Amino acid sequence: MNSRILQPNMRPLTSPNFTGFSNVIRFVLSLFATGARLRIFRFTSFLSNSIELKVVSAQLTSVRAFDFSIFSSLSFFVRFPAINHYLYRLGLNMDGEELTEQETALYDRQIRVWGADAQRRLSKSHILVCGMKGTVAEFCKNIVLAGVGSVTLVDDRVVTEEALSANFLIPPDESVYGGRTVAEICGDSLREFNPMVSVSVQKGDISSFGGDFFDKFNVVVISCCSAGTKKLINDKCRKLSKRVAFYTVDCRDSCGEIFVDLQSYKYSKKKLGETVECEIQYPRLEDAISVPWKVLPKKVSKLYFAMRVIESFEEAEGRKAGEITIGDLPALLKLRKEICETQSLNESHVPSILLERLVMGAREFPPACAVIGGILGQEVIKAISGKGDPLKNFFFFDAMDGKGIIEDISNEPPNK
Amino acid sequence: MASLQHSPSIKDAKVLMVGAGGIGCELLKTLALSGFPDIHIIDMDTIEVSNLNRQFLFRQSHVGQPKAKVARDAILKFRPHINITPYHANVKDPSFNVDFFKQFNVVLNGLDNLDARRHVNRLCLAADVPLVESGTTGFLGQVTVHVKGKTECYECQPKPAPKSYPVCTITSTPSKFVHCIVWAKDLLFTKLFGDKNQDNDLNVRSGDVASSSEHADDAFEQRKDEDVGDYGRRIYDHVFGHNIEVALSNEEAWKNRNKPRPIYSKDVLSDRLPQQNGTVDRSSATDNLSSLPAVSAMASLGLKNLQDVWNLMENSRVFLEALKLFLVNRAQEVGNLTFDKDDQLAVEFVSAAANIRAASFGIPLHSLFEAKGIAGNIVHAVATTNAIVAGLIVIEAIKVLEKNTDAYRMTYCLEHPSKKMLLMPVEPFEPNKSCYVCFKTPLTLEINTRRSRLRDFVEKIVKAKLGMSYPLIMVGHALLYEVGDDLEEDMVKNYAANLEKVLSELPSPVTGGTILQVEDLQQEFTCNISVKHREEFDEEKEPDEMVLSGLTEAPSMAKADDHSIENGGSTSNALPANVTEPKMDVEVEEISVGTENIYSAQKRKLPEVSHATKDVVSGDETRNHKRVQKLDDEDDDVVVMFDHPEVDNHKKQRLQ
């Protein structure tokens, strides 16, 4: 209970360079220097046919202090031909390759849902989140509870009454604000939810961050930004050599929208009892939203069109995301007419009453935040674990009719 | 349409939440954020470590404290000005009576078991308070609305009955790992550590039941001066070796089955092994004992990973070690232990015993982690589904407060989209006219009135099937039995005497044609049962020797892979029948005789909205619901298609 367990985010131990005997010793020394108790789980599983290494692992496990027996076993160890590989695996092991007892106990119920393998991947994933409103607060809670490796928050706003409204991560106590940003205050609350997750804050304008910044993450979630900023970040993520899962999420009144770009995504799913490998292609945000409205299927959610009209309005007027009020409705309806004419779409697909609802309340509807933040959390978990059909590529929820709908809006034929 | 967000009805609402667990934490948060000013919350549980991954209002330091109170304190930190009244109590407590329920505008359920759900349903009906009901399992979830006279009540639909397995499958012919678990947990564990006087079917049923059972009784007693280790090996050899040999001697039974293999300890373990082998193990054993709160066989054997599938030898060592630890370290408890999923040693023993039996019958072995899930009926739970469901509950609650009947929906959270939908709202159904709860439709009971005692009726029907805690039983105006704290002494005596009497010999005899009136005083719920005398019952299929019909409950024949969706006694939330529908399509061939009702009754929604499965519907009353109204949306061609094989596969995948 009181023993220290190496946690996934204790990085210094993780990737030793095992080029020679002295490095091996240095690595082992560094392990003991941390004072951490060594736990080597399932050592035998990747050492399938080597009885000798089992012995070594047993001694390593039982030795508390550094003593000569390690030297003797290690010298034996080193003579083993594939030592570097195995010790590297040992290093990975410390990096959360196997779950600790604490993790298994804490995550018991969810491991029963997505498996130990997915849990390990989660604990090694790094998430960037921008725009801390109610929906994103819900999302952050979900992934912190799920046990991701780290979450980095971006939101330099100061706390206002509006920021408080649907965000349970901000206590209504001005004494704790002290000039701190929304991201910093939310970070404090999130850390309490799960001590195994590292939560940090990045200050600055997200649109000015370069590719090397985004390269640190596996998942990027953008909210409360203009369409231009979203497209910009989406493209920066796409230019990286590694695949970064990109999401946008926004909630207006009791409606919400999620956009997903997983680029070229491989995953496995169970079909009729067998695991099948799948691959799907996603369009980037810019390409998805430039698909001509006329070629879209007839029953595409009206929310899709309504969101694009509002987005265009905010962009044209130079507003920040969400900076639109009921007073803008006449101008918004005018813009709708223009866009519908250009796109050759009947205006009835973008009902006035829906636009009115969306611009009326600046505040998010907390139950809708819970639903959309829940769906987004689920999707991010799927994308990290590589298990199960991800949604492609838009999701809409309207609390009024209660439907949560997936729309595939891309030029390519939908993969099925 | 008025905005949900700005509904004035929220400001004056007084709501009751039942359950502060997975759904409850999320629900309380969303209610508070949405502006609900007065929330009462009942939960009898205390916080456990395995709650922390999703019940985000709780921290490590809260483990052991009452959920309702801790949840309240956590919410007040970010919404200090609302009223939250916590009750650390069972919702079945008599103080939560109809009058208590009447003070609320709506009741919101985040419960984890069928029994409590039925209880709350009846109280809501009696108090005429709307109920929003919910449940989740893994990525699946649902929210339903129950308003008296407007929509069906919670019990209008069949519910999956608690699982039971045919005795002979468990004792003689297991074919799935779950059968081995049930054997290890309900038979072997109980036999060795539980109440010795209980009936126990442990002995393998074979040609000569009598002689083998005689033998067995001897075998399970620890002999005088017998070493604990020797005793353990003798038990091992008896249950995994001898009993299998006896079973094999009945060759008829194995004609169409794979023969099991008798396993003896000497073949699996060397003589020396059960002792601690060498210094290495011993040091790691003490090492671990210091960090683990409870006695643990795997710790003292140096086994660590719960997720590993141990081989036969490892399981055998755990079996013997756990048996020894029970007898040495926990001797005072032996004799009255019952299996508890949070008892590490009990889980180890059951997992090891089940695995050895599985090895004997050629069934794939499972890890302790998996075995624990099966044995403890652990419901799979994640934060996201609970959050989504909580959001949906609040949306329905607001509609209920606004009395916006046309807008009520039951909503399903699906794992795989159906008709592009991940969240699928469906029109609620009208009350079921044959429902014995909200329509008071009489039930029929077939029973041997000359053999069954009143006690059998009370235990097996009134309590188990009708879910009553404070029953009162009458024939005409004559009282046969009642439960209460304020009864006269002679009445208590009278009732006690009645309990032991055969039905036909009661002061007011119960025979074929009698109408019994059964009432629960707390639930203010009455039902009539018309009695039919029947002489004989099938031992395997009708072990209770009574058949109650008209009940909206599925037959209790078990399906092997079903436990994950059970409304079992776990800390989390299981869900009502609807979401289990997908399985039915795929696994229907596994369901044996007498289960067609499950299939057709649970599929009843299909014909309402699609035309694919007309043949499923036959004249059964339960399915003749009309929908409350037409779907309103112009493009609404919602088809409820619950036949995703993936849903089922997902479940299997978790169980592998």
TrEMBL record, chain A:
MF term (GO), any: SUMO activating enzyme activity
Keyword field contains Cytoplasm: no
Pfam families assigned to the protein according to its UniProt record, in alphabetical order: ThiF (PF00899)
Subcellular location(s) per record: Nucleus
Pathway(s) of this molecule: Protein modification; protein sumoylation
Entry superkingdom: Eukaryota
InterPro entries: ThiF/MoeB/HesA, ThiF_NAD_FAD-bd, Ubiquitin-activating_enz
Keywords attached to this entry: Acetylation, Ligase, Nucleus, Ubl conjugation pathway
Domain THIF-type NAD/FAD binding fold: 107-407
GO biological process: protein sumoylation
GO CC annotation, single: SUMO activating enzyme complex
Self-association and partners: Heterodimer of SAE1A or SAE1B and SAE2. The complex binds SUMO proteins via SAE2.
Similarity-based family: Belongs to the ubiquitin-activating E1 family.
Protein name: Ubiquitin-like 1-activating enzyme E1A
Automatic annotation (TrEMBL), chain B:
Keywords linked to the UniProt accession: ATP-binding, Metal-binding, Nucleotide-binding, Nucleus, Transferase, Ubl conjugation pathway, Zinc
InterPro entries the record matches: ThiF/MoeB/HesA, ThiF_NAD_FAD-bd, UAE_UbL_dom, Ub-E1_IAD_1, Ub_act_enz_dom_a_sf, Uba2, UBA_E1_SCCH, Ubiquitin-activating_enz
Family of this protein: Belongs to the ubiquitin-activating E1 family.
Domain Ubiquitin/SUMO-activating enzyme ubiquitin-like stretches: 445-537
Entry keyword annotation includes Transferase: yes
One GO BP: protein sumoylation
Main location: nucleus
Subcellular location: Nucleus
Protein name: SUMO-activating enzyme subunit
Domain of life: Eukaryota
Molecular-function GO terms, alphabetical: ATP binding; metal ion binding; SUMO activating enzyme activity; transferase activity
GO cellular component: cytoplasm; SUMO activating enzyme complex
Residues that hold Zn(2+) according to the record: C153, C156, C435, C438
UniProt cross-references to SUPFAM superfamilies, sorted A to Z: Activating enzymes of the ubiquitin-like proteins
Gene3D superfamilies xref list: Ubiquitin activating enzymes (Uba3). Chain: B, domain 2, Ubiquitin-activating enzyme E1, inactive adenylation domain, subdomain 1, Ubiquitin-like 2 activating enzyme e1b. Chain: B, domain 3
Pfam families per UniProt: ThiF, UAE_UbL, UBA_E1_SCCH
Ranges where the record places region Disordered: 203-224, 604-626
Active-site residue list: C168
Complex formation: Heterodimer.
Domain Ubiquitin-activating enzyme SCCH: 332-372
Pathway named in the protein's UniProt entry: Protein modification; protein sumoylation
CDD domains recorded: Uba2_SUMO
Residue ranges of domain THIF-type NAD/FAD binding fold in the record: 9-436
Positions with a binding annotation for ATP: 19-24, 43, 51-54, 67, 112-117
